[in-house]
Amino acid sequence: MAVPAAKQRLSVPFDYDKYLRPGKLPHIWCPGCGHGIVLKSLLRAIDKIGWEKDNLCMVSGIGCSSRTTGYVDCNTVHSLHGRAFAFATGIKFSKPELNTIVISGDGDAMAIGGNHFIHLCRRNIDITVLVYSNAIYGMTGGQYSPTTPAGSYATTSRYGNIEPPFDPCEMAKAAGATFVARSTAYHTKELEKILLQALEHKGTSVVDIIDSCPIYYGRMNKFKSASHMMNGLEKDGTITVAQAAKLTPEEIGGRQLRGILHQAERPEYCENYDNIIVKQATATKGA
Amino acid sequence: MAEAEKKLPRIEIDAVRCKGCSICVDFCPTKVLIMKGTIVAVDNLAACTRCQLCDLRCPDFAIRVFD
Amino acid sequence: MPNSKKKLLQGNEACVEGALYAGCDFFGGYPITPSTEIAEILSVRLPQRGGKFIQMEDEIASLGAVIGAALAGRKALTATSGPGFSLKQECLGYACIAEVPCVIINVMRGGPSTGYPTGPSQSDIMQAKWGTHGDHPAVALTPASVQEILTETVRAFNLSEKYRTPVIVLYDEIIGHMREPITIPEPGELEVINRAKPECAKEDYLPYDENYLVAPLAPFGEGYRYHVTGLNHKADGFPVNDSEIIRENNERIMRKIDENIEDIEKNEEVFLDDAEIGIFTVGSTARSARFAVNALRKEGIKAGLLRPLTIWPFPDKAVKKMADQVKFIVVPELNLGQMIGEVQRVGNGACEVLGINRVDGESIHPTQIIDLIKKHK
């Protein structure tokens, strides 16, 4: 039957169910938690790059963010707190043809998994790391994390946090990741685009994603609602690299940069192993 | 053509998935949506521009805009 | 073994031969005395045969990478010693509950903490059983010679693949670093068990299918998309809050070992049939015990040795039999008394149990055993 031209032109909503395990929703995340928004951006990016679910592997640690792996219909590991980087390294190195993504949070990646995070970046193994940065340990009820801003409140910083926060992007760059970017849950289309570039990148790519925990961080820090928090932290609290380039440091103020913050080319770990180690080893085998 | 442009979109809300965070209501540029009790509801469908921001920012996979 | 190769090898070198014989194609490790030779040699040997070697950033990551590799279908190994074994306990528990086959070599050294890195010890016997939190199955093998390190490493891979569980090989620094002439078995000479693959339709695959005591484990990337977690889970691998399923999950991982104890258990008995005095020990200490038994027999003292090659699950049946038969049991061990508690538990008062313990970085000499037995008999 002929379809009117106007109908063909209009967009159809993205079918997330194609990538979700049936019967697993509603998810466990709290009302207004940004993690679901991030996951949707990731699924759209995966769809754009066209990766088959059979060849997709998602590994997570422990925490709210790490529950992501339970929902996505692919090869998934919900590993140990901070250890997703090690598990994923073992998987990717064993089967480089598996497109491998690590889902982590600020506590998982920057505190308990900090060492593993650094060395994954250093090896430049072809894994994409998503850090869902909501500046709080949500799963345990709202304790301060390594990305909690100084002065803000959590259930373990009732008098205000005296620790300065980590910048996951600076950490990734210093450690040797070859693609480092930041976006937010609020900027969902921009996030999708950045995630697509991260997935396309050969080598370790790290995307720090600022999203909101309205239930714990939000309530303790006087945010009225999820959208109030998204506006305050994600929209007004960030600025694109391009916008920032036209401003003085004073004008940028405390805003965090969004966009691709670092990109470099360096040999990828699995390829290096095959090209150098296996070549050398087989050449000297008889010796 | 004119008729097609006047045609209203269909907004599907999954009441089981929606947790009533109000993100879609708060960010809808044309105030199509309202909170009804603990979940979102369509209030002014005629104002919908099919921008899909409600879908894009819904953390709960609960709202979709069909043409 | 007419065509087999004779070689003079160090214990840790024999471990490598055993691992490669069993089909090990992944090693993730971290340098630690006295196990480091295993990593060093595998870094050379694995890439020669298309295997993967990676030196991870720490002990935790080593076993993490090994678990990841195993999920991707590889036969994966790590090697460590006491302090590293402590760090690995977290991932060891994960491998137990997620039922991921892998092999952990622990070349035991003195402890606690950094302890005495270059001295022998058997102080991780209990850590191998109780080191990680929660109830969990423990399978640990205790070779006592360089040759046995090879064969027991093969058996460790076989058991881990068959029962989808981590298997620990425990040996002390003495046999890890000693050299002995050994025979490298020809291919086919020793049994090599490979992981069972699912036979069902891909969409019907359940990684923890209740119809099996040990369900087949599909390698990632072959179309069986499933979820792995360290949380208590149901047949499909997803976490649950249902107390009935949690109980079954916890009990089944124990049951799969308990119900196959005869397949897993392995003991050597030396003059035990008519023994009036029993010795129970493992590893290098068993070598001294064997010498002691022979010497005592020459003097007409009916001593016998029970030497488990599988220390976990504990050989209850064999120990009970010995306890009912002998006047007393001597348990020499390079710690302050770990196995002895188990022997006492099983013996349950049937006979006296005496310990010989050393934690000074020296081995237990046969004369120590002989003297105690003569004094006590």
Tell me what the structure shows.
- The complex is a heterotrimer of chains A (287), B (67) and C (377).
- Chain A is of the alpha/beta class and 287 residues long.
- Chain A has helices at residues 5-9, 35-49, 84-94, 106-112, 114-123, 168-175, 188-200, 214-220, 226-235, 241-245, 249-252, 269-283, and strands at residues 56-60, 75-78, 99-105, 127-133, 179-184, 205-210, 238-240, 256-263.
- Chain A has one domain (30-286): Thiamin diphosphate (ThDP)-binding fold, Pyr/PP domains (Rossmann fold, 3-Layer(aba) Sandwich), CATH 3.40.50.970.
- In chain A, 38% of the residues lie in helices and 16% in strands.
- In chain A, strand 5 (179-184), helix 7 (188-200) and strand 6 (205-210) form a beta-alpha-beta unit.
- The longest helix of chain A has 15 residues, at 35-49.
- Chain A is globular and about 65 Å long.
- Mean pLDDT of chain A is 95; it is low at 1-9.
- Chain B starts with a helix and ends with a strand.
- The relative contact order of chain B is 0.33.
- Chain B is of the alpha+beta class.
- Chain B has helices spanning 2-6, 23-27, 53-57; strands at residues 10-13, 33-36, 39-42, 63-66.
- Chain C is α/β, with parallel strands linked by helices and 377 residues long.
- Chain C folds into two domains: 6-183, Rossmann fold (3-Layer(aba) Sandwich), CATH 3.40.50; 268-376, Rossmann fold.
- Chain C has helices at residues 11-22, 36-48, 59-71, 82-98, 125-130, 146-163, 173-177, 243-258, 261-264, 283-298, 316-325, 339-347, 366-376; strands at 5-10, 26-29, 52-55, 76-80, 102-110, 116-120, 140-141, 166-172, 179-184, 227-229, 267-270, 277-280, 303-308, 310-312, 328-333, 352-357.
- In chain C, strands 2, 3, 4, 5, 6, 7, 8 and 14 form an eight-stranded mixed β-sheet that branches.
- In chain C, helix 10 (283-298) packs across helix 13 (366-376).
- The longest helix of chain C is centred in the middle third of the chain and has 18 residues, at 146-163.
- Classes of the chains: A alpha/beta (287), B alpha+beta (67), C alpha/beta (377).
Uncertain regions of chain B: pLDDT < 50 for 5+ in a row? none
Largest sheet of chain B: 2 strands, antiparallel
Provide the residue-averaged pLDDT of chain A: 95
| Strands of chain A, total number | 8
Give the total of beta strands of chain B. Answer: 4
The CATH homologous superfamily of chain A corresponds to Thiamin diphosphate (ThDP)-binding fold, Pyr/PP domains
Which CATH class of chain B is shown? Alpha Beta
- Biggest sheet details of chain A: 8 strands, mixed
Alpha-carbon Rg of chain A, integer = 20 Å
